[in-house]
Amino acid sequence: MPLEGEYEPSPDAWVRDQVERYEATDGREAGTLGGTGRPVVIFTTRGNRSGKLRKTPLMRVEHDGAHLMVASKGGAPSHPVWYHNLRADPTALMVQDGADRFDATARELEGDERAEWWERAVAAFPPYAEYQRNTDRRIPVLLAERRTGSGTDAEEQS
What we know:
Protein name: AclJ
Order of helices and strands: HEEEEHEEHHEH
Helix content: 25-40%
Strand content: 25-35%
Strand order of the largest sheet: 2-1-5-6-7-4-3
CATH superfamily: Electron Transport, Fmn-binding Protein, Chain A
InterPro entries: F420H2_quin_Rdtase (IPR004378), Split_barrel_FMN-bd (IPR012349)
Distance between the termini: 18 Å
Number of domains: 1
Number of helices: 5
């Protein structure tokens, strides 16, 4: 079932603007992290307190159809809000990678699987390694996996 509800745009203008352009153009515009040329994906979660939909552009780290969500918050001492939202409800997640939109379930990675995906994350966006050095917390990494039967309307009609 698609993630539905009232959308509350980010209080940060650059996030609001990027999400709006990305969605309007299926990622053909605003599809990279400002100034880096590195691609992003839009993740939609449900606020665990407000119940409103929140949209966050994160670095695109994809492998075999799964997308990684790195809760780096630039190496800040606290986790980003979207991380807490997914801990409260890991199924309240939609991913938009270009024109491909699908419902997903998030799970936090540990052990060897985490290490393997962390390497992919740092390869996609090297500053992640610095962010980890700059914080005392272990940066969580979550894997967003497509739910069966989830996809764009065009995919579901074919």
